[in-house]
Specification:
The chain is mainly α. It folds into two domains: 1-44; 45-429, no CATH class. It is built from 21 helices and no strands. Helix 4 packs parallel to helix 13 (242-260), helix 4 runs antiparallel to helix 14 and helix 12 (211-236) packs antiparallel against helix 13 (242-260).
């Protein structure tokens, strides 16, 4: 066995062993990197150098701004308004509150960019509301957690920024535009599943559709929706970089939350900023550690070996794409989203491109796969949050979620094999040439 093979086994083997025994992911990445460097005889002085290099990026400055924007808007009193807007649009359907949950997640995801924030914020309102209207509590929770994944696709998503930085040469603006149609496709697939289950269980309808009420609710929600417009139009139109638009959006979100919606006072603002710092410390440590991990992968030629391994199974494009999805789904079940993006992108992106996938299309695939992983044991952060908010046993929530897994897989396969779903809008707007 060659020294390179031994070092690869040490790097990946120690990493996955620590993940399985539930080491904090940043420690797992860092320790496996150190063990690998020692096995290769490298000087550990280069470790902090690689870590600093990983976070020394102007584009990555957008990540803390987007997270701060999401926290400020999420705690600033906009949840009720977005729920009312969604209710005026789709509440008249059979299983109306389930439809409201899904559409509200699309709106809210475009502001928070976080599935966890979506579940915690909207779930705490909509799950009790659905139960009071006669919906099964496990069904209500399943709708909430699955629809929260729309927020990972709809801009501004800080995970998109992380992917764009890791992939190299991928436009953040094009990724933002690429997320809208896949997010809408996911929402529609979940609505179809919800409608079928609602008819089967005879869940109630809401009040008939009223154009007057719809316009009224848009007027109330317009300030929140404008935050997304600032980011997307600014980036795609070339007015701002992603970092600049994110910074402007933070100032705007602060003003709206404190002075317009008045959901936050200054004490609440400081509390929100503390929450941001806690989240950011985790994200940035992961990015730094993953940069050093990725350097080891490159030195050991792991991306090329992975490409050869996957293509050796089959050279058929369909089989390769299915294998990529399977790998990402399995990773999503045992790891959080950020480390998957940081570690798997350098390995799998060349394989995806060899199968004819555009880097932007692959990015959307990766984010959705990771989103599904957030709903599955044993890691399943969003699954845990949903169960806690609803006060329901996790195993019952998982059982109720099974039909929605099918809806999400259908959406994933369509995104994987129909490039236009991800690429049409970026091309139309000129974000992708």
């Amino acid at each position: 066995m060659s020294p390179e093979t031994v070092s690869t086994i040490i790097l990946l083997g120690s990493f996955f062993i620590m993940v399985i025994i539930r080491f904090p992911i940043a420690y797992a990445v860092g320790i496996s990197t150190i063990l690998c460097m020692l096995s290769m005889g490298q000087n550990l002085v280069s470790l902090p150098q690689q870590m600093v290099k990983g976070v020394w990026s102007f584009s990555l400055m957008a990540v803390p701004f987007f997270i701060t924007m999401g926290v400020l808007m999420g705690t600033g009193g906009i949840s009720d308004k977005l729920i009312a807007l969604a209710n005026s649009l789709v509440g008249w359907m059979r299983g109306g509150l389930a439809m409201v949950n899904i559409v509200a997640s699309y709106f809210f995801g475009g502001i928070s960019g976080s599935a966890s924030a979506d579940t915690a914020s909207l779930g705490s309102i909509l799950i009790p509301m659905m139960v009071d209207e006669g919906y099964d509590p496990d069904f209500s929770t399943a709708v909430t957690i699955t629809s929260s994944c729309e927020g990972l696709l709809v801009p501004p998503s800080h995970n998109m920024v992380i992917y764009a930085t890791t992939a190299g040469g991928v436009s953040v603006g094009a990724l933002f535009m690429a997320g809208y149609l896949p997010g809408a496709l996911l929402a529609i697939s979940l609505m179809v599943g919800s409608y079928i289950l609602s008819v089967k269980n005879n869940y109630p309808k809401g009040e008939p559709f009223s154009i007057t009420n719809f316009v009224k609710q848009i007027a109330k929600s317009i300030w929140a929706l404008l935050a997304v417009l600032i980011v997307v139009v600014g980036v795609v139109g070339g007015l701002f970089t992603a970092t600049e638009s994110a910074a402007i959006a933070v100032v705007y979100s602060l003003f709206i939350s404190v002075f317009v919606y008045r959901g936050l006072n200054w004490k609440g603002v400081w509390k929100s900023l503390e929450q941001c710092i806690e989240t950011l410390s985790i994200v940035l440590i992961l990015i730094a550690m993953s940069a050093a991990f990725g350097n080891c992968l490159t030195l050991l030629h792991v991306p090329a070996k992975a490409a050869n391994l996957i293509t050796s199974v089959s050279s058929n494009r369909i089989v390769v794409i299915l294998l990529l999805n399977l790998i990402l789904l399995i990773l999503g079940m045992i790891m959080d989203m950020a480390p998957i993006i940081l570690i798997a992108t350098p390995i799998l992106l060349p394989v995806a491109q060899s199968a004819g996938l555009h880097p932007i299309q692959f990015g959307i695939m990766m984010v959705l796969n990771c989103g599904i992983g957030l709903l599955t044991p044993p890691v399943g952060a969003v699954l845990f949050i949903g169960s806690a908010v609803a006060k329901r046993p996790m195993e019952k929530v998982v059982k109720a979620t099974l039909p929605f897994y099918i809806c999400m897989i259908i959406a994933l396969l369509l995104i994987s094999f129909v490039p236009g779903i991800s690429l049409w809008l970026p091309k139309l707007t000129g974000a992708l040439v």
